[in-house]
Amino acid sequence: MALKLMYITNRPDVAEVAEINGVDRIFVDMEYIGKADRQGGLNTVQNRHTVEDVRRIRAVLRKSALLVRCNPIHEATEAYGSSAAEIDSIVEAGADIIMLPFFKTADEVEAFVSLVGGRARVMLLLETPAAVENLDSILSVKGVDEVFIGLNDLSLGYGKTFLFEVLADGTVERLCLKCREYGLPYGFGGIASLGKGLVHAEYIMGEHYRLGSGSVILSRSFCHIGQLQSMEEIRRTFEEGLSGIRRLESQWEGIMSPVWENYRRTAEQIGRVVENMRK
Q1: 10 Å Cβ neighbour count for 106?
Q2: What one-character DSSP code corresponds to residue 71?
Q3: 267 vs 253: CA distance, rounded Å
Q4: Would you say residue 94 has pLDDT above 80?
Q5: How many CB atoms lie within 10 A of CB 168?
Q6: Rounded Cα–Cα distance for residues 95 and 27 (Å)
Q7: Interior angle at CA 215, CA 93 and CA 109, nearest 5
Q8: Rounded to an integer, what distance in angstroms lies between the CA atom of residue 141 and that of residue 233?
Q9: At what angle do helices 83-93 and 51-60 cross, to 10 degrees?
Q10: Which residues pair with 258 in a beta bridge?
Q11: Which residue in 74, 97, 177, 188 is deepest, having the highest Cβ count within 10 Å?
């Protein structure tokens, strides 16, 4: 398999480096409504990218797709414009794919598909227990192109201590199988550089292969821009990190049977992390 690698940035210079080194999708994150309340106090990424960022990133991309996460479906208020106006502006700025976060019902998904109106690909960010409960009706909506399983909010919704618990307990596997049943491409979560992360990226990569995933986000720890001093360091990080990921993929390709041993080891490592976090 060749995972579609996604990287979140609103910096055109970083987007160019990522694209040159093989990142498939540059991800501009415009979601902010309700996010601070859900994830307040957690060490999670909370961006406030704008439609102007979408335009600036569009201008530098040559082959990578431009993915934009909008806000959840919402009514127009004094504080927020309408979902229709937001999605129109994202389309006009040049998005190839628009991601809908934090939905719970098929009605929200139908509204989103209608607002996009075939002008971009539709990706659903599956990250609420309510959406999991309504998954058959949601995946039956015509016009959905792809699903991405968001581990941060999904784990919060289920009261978990650590985001990868939903990978260890079989939740992610059930969701992947359901997406496959409906013929929809799917992906999940994020990965750090190889050898890094509370759960090493090698194990997480093995689970992507075992579950037939098609996409993953390169996490903040893969290339933490704020900790790097120069563009040369950023270039080296992407070059070395992505070449390592692609080499590991080629190794997984040679394994013809499901890699259940990787699942066992991954679940054990996740369990140790959870145990330490609860102390």
Answers
A1: 17
A2: P
A3: 22
A4: yes
A5: 22
A6: 10
A7: 60
A8: 44
A9: 20
A10: none
A11: 188
CA–CA separation, 57 vs 29, rounded Å?
A: 12
Identify whether the C-beta of residue 69 lies closer than 8 Å to the C-beta of residue 40: no
Per-residue pLDDT reduced to its tens digit, 135-165: 999 999 999 999 999 999 999 999 999 999 9
Choose among 275, 46, 54: nearest CA to 153. Answer: 46
> Stretch 115-143: mean pLDDT, rounded?
98
**Is the separation of the CB atoms in 74 and 33 below 8 Å?**
yes
Q: What is the pLDDT of residue 46?
A: 58
Specify whether domain 4-278 bears CATH 3.20.20.60. yes
- CA-to-CA dists, residue 79 to 32, 75, 101, angstroms: 12, 10, 19
Q: Which two tokens stand for residue 188?
A: 């999940």
Write down the pTM of the prediction: 0.93
Tokens of 130: 């309510």
Helix H or strand E segment including 59: helix 51-60
